[in-house]
Amino acid sequence: MRVRLVLAAAALLTAAVAPLAHAGGADGHHTADRPAGSQLRDGHLHDSNLRDSRFTDSRFTDGHFTDGLFVDAYGTVADDSTVTLSGTYRCLDDSAGPVFVSSTLVQGDRSTGIGGTRAVCDGHLHTWTNSSVAKDPAYVPGAARVEATLMQLSGTGLPLPRFLATEKADVELR
Length: 174
Hints:
Layout: H1 2-17, E1 38-41, E2 44-47, H2 58-61, E3 68-71, E4 74-77, E5 82-90, E6 99-107, E7 110-118, E8 126-133, E9 142-154, E10 160-173
Parallel strand pairs: 4-10
Antiparallel strand pairs: 1-2, 3-5, 4-5, 5-8, 6-7, 6-9, 9-10
């Protein structure tokens, strides 16, 4: 079990350090995936109307919010089999070690890790986008499930993962 955790942490760290081939817009964020009424300023997602139920969750609205993670309702599959998933997160503190957003796509009996994004833990809402080429067999448009994790690597010597938040969501691949 410990070997699996170390391998998963190493894979996430490798994915987060490598530049993403599909960064989205000039600022690296997909504007289509942001909640209505939100704007990206100074690298932070500012939501001017909190009508979206994801952002009225008590984890985000009371004065004592915790780390949180959400998955967008859809992902994309490009002609070259590149899968892109996205969502929103908020984390409070990365002083114990780097924090990453990882995602796994499940469709039928197939499960594949789709990238990893380094998180900014400053208490603000941020979007995340993970992309990966997934072939043999390729994913197809239709119903799927995403399992996303907000994970911190911490400890001396070999860093160990600490899971801050998880989210499982049904999505539509387009």
